[in-house]
Amino acid sequence: MDRRKFLGTTFGAVTAATLLTRQGWAAANRRIDHLGVQLYTVRNQMKQDFEGTLAKVAGVGYKEVEFAGYFDHSPQDVRAILDRHGLSAPSAHVPYSSFGDQWPQIIENSKVMGHKYIINPSIDRAVLNQPDGWKRAADTFNKAGAVSKKAGVQLGYHNHWIEFRPTADGKLPYDILLAECDPDLVKMEMDICWVKVAGYDPLVYLQKYPGRFPLVHVKDMKKFPDPATVTQQTENQNMTDVGSGATDWKRLFSQAKGIKYYIVEHDETSTPFESIKNSYNYLKNLRF
After folding, report:
1. Which H or E run includes 155?
2. How many Å apart are CA 244 and CA 266, to the nearest integer?
3. Residues of 159-173 as b/e, b for ≥16 C-beta within 10 angstroms?
4. Secondary structure (3-state) at 67
5. Confidence class of residue 265 from pLDDT cuts 50, 70 and 90?
6. CB within 8 A of 224, min separation 6: which ones?
7. DSSP per-residue string spanning 81-131
8. DSSP secondary structure string, 190-255?
9. Rounded CA gap, 249 and 32, in Å?
10. Confidence (pLDDT) at 4
11. Measured in whole angstroms, how far is the alpha carbon of residue 143 from the centre of its chain?
12. Residue 211 — left, alpha, or beta (φ > 0 → left; ψ -120 to 50 → alpha)?
């Protein structure tokens, strides 16, 4: 090999190695930009001291919260409280009954609050017990999502484990929702924990449907149960703070694409403020 070929080959190899090193370094140093908490975690405290609880949440370090009810406070009052404590609320949960005559007002309230997403966390069982109940729900979501989208607010749906129990014809309800819901009108807020409780890998969905999951609920269990034994009475027994459970968050987040908002939740904890602090510290320092 002459000098020119040698130098060219060597330079190319060095450049490629440097590029790969930089790419690897960058990948390993990705971090969560939007780290929030679902206020259902501190719901009992919210009932007793609404603003004081939000102040404590902000004191932990959170800048974003997701509401599960305003506890009889007006959107204007809640927005003022958030502003006082340096918080924003990109999303909120609303019941399935919201998709009726009150839907336009809920959208307007959400705009006052600064919500980018309105999330339904559960479909009424009376709907699901009807023939093609999941398709009926998807149709309702599409219609409601078209109205909210026009107003500048995105509709979304939050899962539990029940969406991964096959229907009589062998289909997964979650797959039905993903197929029937217009991806532009209805996004998904994946509860990663419940997907795993049902015995499925959330990463499969996150990779198969990029862009469908702008929000995720980040919560964990010490040990995931046998999916066949899970009931509503047993589903919370092994829940724990993020970072102290069985989920490999680094693997999951490093391979998932399209997540914008990471929202901590612990459904049942006797020490909610300690719990959200532990989860915050773990996720704030996580690099992937």
Report:
1. strand 154-158
2. 12
3. bbbbbbeeeeeeebb
4. strand
5. very high
6. 196, 197, 238, 246
7. HHHHTT-EEEEEE--GGGSSTTHHHHHHHHHHHT-SEEEE----HHHHTST
8. EEHHHHHHTT--HHHHHHHSTTS-SEEEE-EESSPPPGGG--TTTTTTTEE-TTSSS--HHHHHHH
9. 12
10. 45
11. 22
12. left
**99-137, pLDDT tens digit by residue?**
999 999 999 999 999 999 999 999 999 999 999 999 999
Domain 32-285 has CATH 3.20.20.150: yes
Per-residue confidence band for 262, with pLDDT thresholds at 50, 70 and 90: very high
Give the whole-angstrom CA distance, residue 221 versus residue 205.
20
Q: How confident is the model at residue 230 (pLDDT cuts 50, 70, 90)?
A: confident
235 vs 90 pLDDT, higher one: 90
Q: Please state the domain extents for the chain.
A: 1-30, 32-285
* Residue from 278, 277, 266 nearest 41 by CA: 266
